[in-house]
Amino acid sequence: PTPLPLQVPSRPNPNPHPQIINPPFAAAQARFVVIGSDGLWDQLSPAEAVSLASHFSSRGADYAAEELVEAALGRWRRVGRFHDDITAVVVKLPAPRASA
Question: What residue stretches are annotated with the PPM-type phosphatase domain (predicted)?
Answer without folding.
Answer: 1-93
